Amino acid sequence: GDSVTQMEGPVTLSEEAFLTINCTYTATGYPSLFWYVQYPGEGLQLLLKATKADDKGSNKGFEATYRKETTSFHLEKGSVQVSDSAVYFCALRWAAGNKLTFGGGTRVLVKP
Amino acid sequence: NAGVTQTPKFQVLKTGQSMTLQCAQDMNHNSMYWYRQDPGMGLRLIYYSASEGTTDKGEVPNGYNVSRLNKREFSLRLESAAPSQTSVYFCASGRDWENEQFFGPGTRLTVL
User: Fold this and answer.
1) Which of A26, A69, A97, B50 is deepest in the core (most CB within 10 A)?
2) CB proximity list for B62: less than 8 A, separation 6 or greater
3) What is the four-CA torsion angle of B86, B31, B48, A96, rounded to 10 degrees?
4) A24-38, B3-17, B93-107 — which is least confidently predicted?
C-alpha cells in the first residue's frame, strides 16, 4: 500500500540556519503531495502542496518540489526562525480519493 | 469563524468506559474526518463522512463508531475504551474530498 517516510527528528537548529526535512513516498502513479505543520498545542495546518510532477509548492519561506524520479517531496527553508519550531508532516492523497496518508512527523526545534 | 472545534480538550477514562468526542465546523464543509495521532505514526484515518448522511471506515475503525448528526457536526464514540485507544484525536473538515482539510485543535485521551 501507499506509505510516506520522513526523516526522524528531533531536528535542532539555530536561528537563521538552513532547514531540510526529507520525505519520500511509495505509491503507484502520481498522487498529490502535501506538507502540514503542527504548532504546539494546535491542530495541523496545510503549509504547501504540489499536485503534479515538477510542481513546486511554497509558503512562508518554505519550499518543496515534487520529484517523481526520486519519489520525493523534501521540505526546505533558507533561514529558520524560532517561530518555525513545530512538527512537520508529509502526506499524500490520490486525486480520486479523500484519504490522506501521513508520514510519522518530524519535530523541529529552532533555538535563538 | 471558529473553524473546526472539538470537545473536550482532555479526557481520562478507565478501561471499559464509554465516551463521545464532539466535533463541529462552521465553514459549510461537506466532508468531515476523524484521525488519531500516535507517536512516530503520523495521523491515521478512523472514519470519514463525505457528505451529510454518509459515513465510511478509514484505516483504523475498530473500536469506534461515528455519527454525522448534521452538516456541521461529526461525533466519534468509544463504546468500551481500551488502553490501546490512548491517543490524540483530531477532527478535520473539507469542502469536498478534493480540497484542503482543516483540522481542529485535538482531544488528548488517556485510557487507564
Assistant:
1) B50
2) none
3) -120
4) B93-107
